[in-house]
Design a protein that fits this description.
- The protein is an alpha+beta fold.
- It folds into two domains: 103 residues, Immunoglobulin-like (Sandwich); 32 residues, no CATH class.
- 15% of the residues lie in helices and 28% in strands.
- It has a four-stranded antiparallel sheet, with no helix packed on it. The chain has a four-stranded antiparallel sheet with strand order 2-3-8-7, with no helix packed on it.
- The longest helix has 18 residues.
- It starts with 6 loop residues before the first helix and ends in a 27-residue tail after the last strand.
């Protein structure tokens, strides 16, 4: 008489479960989620899905975005392959890079990965330039502001600094910090 735990019954149960699994197992479809590039009110998000190093400079009349595109290729652990990958890092083909400058954001697509930067001021799209360094592989995107005269700047005069619109003034001398606090009664005593 066969019992539940005898080897023959356990082999039959295992075969039945294998037949059932092979018939019902379907390959899992991996769906890539598309990144959300804009908020509900239309403001662009800042994204770095390509994980690029970058430097961003907000000057008085233009923006400068320097993308370190050569760091996109993953480095391996062995020294020889690390040397070879470093040798070819800066030679990422320029056809794999797509730059899209819009009035309030700039988007760079590198090998299908998105880098997007939202801008505070509108830019002059047709005057924007992108240059790629032949030695380092960095991508420099220069975007002139549409109305640079409307930005706020500081004016030096009489030791007091004040905010002035519609003019860019450079400091001709160091800032005098003695005249920042006018009334000494406002200053708390040092402990």
């Amino acid at each position: 008489m066969k019992c539940e735990n005898c080897p023959e019954v356990r082999c039959e149960i295992a075969e039945k479960s294998r037949r059932g699994k092979t018939a019902t197992v379907e390959p899992k479809k991996v769906e890539k989620s598309t990144p959300k590039l804009f908020s509900d009110n239309g403001r662009p998000y800042c994204l770095n899905l390509a994980r690029l190093d970058f430097t961003f400079h907000d000057e008085a009349d233009h923006y400068e975005l320097n993308l370190h595109v050569y760091k996109f290729v993953r480095q391996s652990k062995s020294q020889l392959s690390n040397f070879i990958s470093n040798l070819f890092l800066r030679f990422l083909d320029s056809s794999l890079i797509d730059v899209d400058a819009q009035p309030n954001y700039v988007r760079v697509t590198v090998k299908g990965k998105i880098f997007q930067m939202a801008l505070n001021d509108e830019i002059h799209v047709s005057a924007s330039t992108s240059k790629r360094s032949q030695t380092t592989g960095h991508l420099l995107i220069t975007m002139p502001k549409l109305n640079p005269e409307n930005c706020l700047t500081f004016k030096a005069g009489g030791g007091k600094s004040s905010i002035e619109e519609n003019r860019v003034v450079k400091f001709s001398s160091p800032v005098n910090i003695r005249n920042i606090v006018v009334d000494e009664s406002e200053v708390p005593p040092l402990i």
